[in-house]
Amino acid sequence: MADTGTALGAPAERREGRDKVTGAARYAAEHPLPGRAHAWPVPASVAAGSVHAIDTAAALDVPGVLSVLTHENAPRVAEPDDATLAVLQNDRVPHRGWFVALVVAETLEAARGGAAAVRVDYTARDHDVTLTEGHPAAYVPEEANGGYPAHRELGDPEGAYDSAAVRVDTDYRVPPLHNHPMEPHAATARWEGDRLVVHDSSQGASTVRTVLAQMFEIPEDRVTVVSEHVGGGFGSKGTPRPHVVLAAMAARVTGRPVTVNLPRRHLPAVVGHRAPTLQRVRLGAAADGTLTSVLHEVTTYTSRIKEFVEQAAMPTRVMYASPHSLTTHRVVPLDVPSPSWMRAPGEAPGMYALESAMDELAVELGMDPVELRIANEPDTEPDSGKPFSSRHLVECLREGARRFDWARRDPRPRSRSEGPLLVGSGVAAATYPVLVSPSTAAARALPDGDFVVRINATDIGTGARTVLAQVAADALDVPLGRVRTEVGSSDLPAAPLAGGSSGTASWGWAVHEACTRLKSRLAGHAGPLPDPGIEARADTAGSADAESDYARHAFGAHFAEVTVDTVTGEVRVRRLLGVYAAGRILNPRTARSQFIGGMTMGLGMALTEGSTMDAAFGDFAESDLASYHVPAHADVPAVEAHWIDEDDPHLNPMGSKGIGEIGIVGTAAAIGNAVHHATGVRLRELPLTPDRVRTALAGYGAGTRLG
Looking at the DSSP assignment, which residues form a beta bridge with residue 279? Predict the structure, then answer.
């Protein structure tokens, strides 16, 4: 590998790229072990109830079928902390799609055929899968996801709102959203005596090992979980999912390696999703735009077996100065699949509502929306009162406005048209917290002059291998080509999962410390190195998780230009621009890829993505990529990502913030605000599909002149 100059900050190419495009990189379902069998789950076809009887005779008669596991014969496991993993342990059916059987066969085709032959009789009960704001079962939990208090109130928000000179009171709806990574959830498991070895598509092999050891009641050092290559996750692979438990069960019963590769249609029901949110935002302001009261109320749902509360009001506690505020979450337990993490949980749906409401306030005030945001820039974090470690949101807004030529924008809605197309532009801000967890790492100097860094980091397509090698080369002061990284196995030094935009910051801290210690040891070593080399280790517990005196967040500004077809209602995004303040950018090439990926996912959230919960059947109507529409290349004509250089000494040794998720946070709001500017119509429910836009345009007023 050619030396790229200074290792950290250089646009180094991803090290695993060639292996991926040539097929040399093996994913969880691609390990052709001798005697490997395949398994196919059977999902429940009722919305709630229990299994009354199950007939596996026809399935067992299918040629090649080896076994059919049900709650009557599956291995008993210890009760997990996560109830979604307690599969085939009893007759309960908490929601449609819950796995009630697993067919194991010689081939994938035989397993699928056997699964179709299983006959299940159910005792169904009345179910409720419909989220409503006034649902009688709604309650305020103690905490929302991430351990944040579900309710916070400062000052007199209701009184200040009632007395405000200018007020906005709006409701926004975000539907259920699904992660749909390119690689579906899969695992290949085998038992070697009392030792369990699993290849799993996971964002955190260390956590999977811990959970499997607990459930199968074996020591952790008897479990190895490998997640060397992972084809995306977006949060859905952040915790163990049922497929890995089923693979281990089937391997134990058959005595053979078993692969469970979930069909994409099964994913919406069993691997988590973004729960829908009903959000009410009220903003009170003085005539000059200064916010006097901010109220953000969220209603969402959770399943009946596991509480998960999307923390959508959390970013409102960070963004703007206001002496009075209220942020609260209410949750309704329903007979639905358990929601979970999806890229920027909380921030993505929450900032859509807040930033849309800020745009509505700007219209009420007759004020430029960029200037409104700048006018409400806080001196300290509004919720905690802590000083920001760094906050360059104003610079992002200013630089984005310059690059987007915002000054030439006519603020009047419907002020620009091209034939049947209305053209508009919009802006939104973004924030995401800096999250860091303790990690361990080892660095070894070899006699041939090379170095090996070992850490159980997970590369989910972000370029983690490459960036960690850059961190190591920088700390060791050696060329990047002399550093090799080993990641993706629970047999390596333990590390936290790839999630919450915390991976590089957490892993990089430990790698930096290990390499710094190794460099010091080498400086004191005379003569050639011993054959095994010299190693140094680091554990950042107590430092990476220490309480900070600063509020640490990344910030950004999103700008969008759209066209709206007045005949069809189709919205097309001509241009997306994101400008970010995310600490030191360690690799511009991989960083730009992450920013653009997040913005593309935000475009999908705005225009095409969304699921419909069928009230009668308790099932998501959109369960595959034919019906759940993610953006294609043709939908993303021009996406630009830039950043502000930040020097923040209060983060980690690299000075970096997470970048994987902030790209999605403000995109949907910027697009929605651009649609309003183009049409004069405010749509408050995502996605902005042609039918909704066309209906809204029809209601705008017949005969309204364009331009």
Answer: 172, 298
DSSP 8-state secondary structure symbol assigned to residue 67: E
Residue 701 has a pLDDT of 63
Contacts of residue 101, Cβ cutoff 8 Å, sequence gap at least 6? 41, 42, 54, 56, 68, 69, 70, 88, 115, 118, 120
Strand partners, 149: 143
β-pairing, 291-303 with 325-334?
Answer: parallel
CB 143 within 8 A of CB 336: no
289-to-127, 324, 410, 427, 694 alpha-carbon distances in Å: 47, 15, 20, 17, 32
CA proximity to 429, closest of 362, 363, 370: 370
Confidence at residue 266, expressed as pLDDT on a 0 to 100 scale: 97
Question: CB under 8 Å to 687, separation ≥6 — which residues?
Answer: 175, 604, 605, 606, 607, 608, 609, 610
Model pLDDT, residue 667: 98
Query: What number of CA atoms fall less than 13 Å from residue 391's CA on the CB side?
Result: 24
d(CA 228, CA 235) in angstroms, rounded, equals 17
Tell me, what's the pLDDT at 6?
A: 60
Q: Which two tokens stand for residue 705?
A: 């002149």
- The answer to whether residues 518 and 472 touch, using CB atoms and an 8 Å cutoff, is no
453-454-455-457 Cα dihedral, nearest 10 degrees: 70
List, as one string, the DSSP characters of 135-161: -TT-B--SEEGGGEESEEEES-HHHHH
As a whole number of angstroms, the distance between CA 596 and CA 553 comes to 19
pLDDT < 50 positions in the chain = 1-5, 702-707
Q: What string of H, E and C letters represents the secondary structure of 540-608? A: CCCCCCCCCCCECEEEEEEEEEEEEECCCCCEEEEEEEEEEECECCCCHHHHHHHHHHHHHHHHHHHHC
Rounded CA-CA distance 585/587 in Å is: 6
Residue positions annotated with a catalytic role:
661
Is the Cβ–Cβ distance between 166 and 365 less than 8 Å?
Answer: yes
Burial class of residue 126, CB neighbours in 10 A (0-12, 13-18, 19+): exposed
Secondary structure class of 450 (helix, strand, coil): coil
Residue where the block lists tokens 């990189």:
25
Tally Cβ neighbours within 10 Å of residue 311: 25
* Mean pLDDT computed over every residue of the chain: 96
Task: Read off the pLDDT of residues 506-535 as tens digits, 9 standing for 90 and up.
Answer: 999 999 999 999 999 999 998 899 999 999
Say which residue the tokens 């901010």 belong to: 294
